[in-house]
Design a protein that fits this description.
Blueprint lengths: L1 E2 L2 H21 L6 E7 L3 H17 L2 E7 L5 H12 L6 E4 L9 H7 L11 H8 L8 H12 L8 E5 L6 H8 L9 E5 L6 H5 L4 E4 L17 E4 L3 E4 L7 E4 L4 H4 L5 E2 L6 H20 L1
Parallel strand pairs: 1-11, 2-3, 2-4, 5-6, 5-7, 7-8, 8-11
Antiparallel strand pairs: 9-10
Amino acid sequence: MTILDGKKVSNDIKNEIAEEVKKMKAKGEKVPHLAAIIVGNDGASLTYVASKVKACERVGFESTMVRMSNTTSEIELLDKIHELNTNPEIDGFIIQLPLPKQIDTQKVLMAVDPDKDVDGFHPMNFGKMALDMSTFIPATPFGILELLDRYNVETKGKHTVVIGRSHIVGRPMSILMGRKGFPGNSTVTVTHSHTKNITQITSQADIIISALGVPNFLKAEMVKDDAVIIDVGITRVADDTSPKGYIITGDVDFKNVSKKASFITPVPGGVGPMTIAMLLKNTLLARELRH
């Protein structure tokens, strides 16, 4: 059994990006600039955006954090997006989700310039991805592809089961795993809350990608021997024995499933660290496209 170590791979990617940025600086070129808009005071969102800013510093990117209050109107947010769309200094930007109730998330994501949409959420970029065209791939699916690639996990002709159909992970993964090329060329089954006999389906899978958000959902009896397990779930579970009062748990019963798996991602330290690394990679790509 091999652990797909997202922490190590994400560090490798950040080092590679830092080298690229060094070369740009040596030539006197503009370095990539990533901006993030955060609306409100959600603790998890603030922590996540702060880690993105820290990652930018590490690789030599410029970064801007735009903080807006919880009472921000949709028009005010759209004005700010227009400002970033038209600012030549900004190569790419993200809007941290979730947004407050008074704001239409879909309308906001549609307002982002697709050429600066480093989250890969704009319908134009999603459509290009579905058509196998060069574009920004959403950071978490991009990170999963990179892990499979760097560990040479065979995907061609395999049966991939995706658990969950969110626009951020499940749906893009189902498209990407079925595309021509590597990683890809697998036969994909998408399962969700209305799927019957899910164990029957997962027990036939060569690769399982779980993005459900239900702690320890995937049990050992649901997995065949030597399956590849990608755990995207990340849930805080109350735990009195932990100093923080909680532990981070994935969708997979890691202790038991890992005994049967050929490759598996841990939680934390698997897919999570890859997301920020791939966001940086998308920002580098955005800068190349713009210059």
